Amino acid sequence: MTRQYEWIEICEIEQGARTKTRWWDIQSKSSRNLLGYVKWYSPWRKYVFSPISNTLFDEKCLREIAEHLELATAGHKWDFKI
Question: Which of these, 61, 59, 2, 70, lies nearest to 36 by C-alpha position?
């Protein structure tokens, strides 16, 4: 699931063999600063964004993050139906 975004870069974090879900770092393309993480949240049965404290986001950046969450959740659910 590689998608190019205008404002953010999404980097998958290596997980151990026993891990069932994926994690991603969300970084600013311009500064390379870490903005937060995308990880699976079991109570909601979907991927969520967990921002680093004192980070700010405009509507374009949030749309890009939201798009990634939707694609990651859909991909996760598709993987488990097979």
Answer: 61
Q: What is the structure's pLDDT at 1?
A: 47
> What ranges do the domains of the chain cover?
8-81
Compute the distance between CA of residue 18 and CA of residue 74 in angstroms, rounded to an integer.
21
Query: Given 3-state DSSP classes, what are the helix, strand and coil percentages for the chain, each rounded to the nearest 5?
Result: 30, 30, 35
- Residue 66, pLDDT above cutoff 90: yes
CA pair distance 82, 80, nearest whole angstrom = 5
- Length of the chain as a residue count: 82
pTM for this entry: 0.84
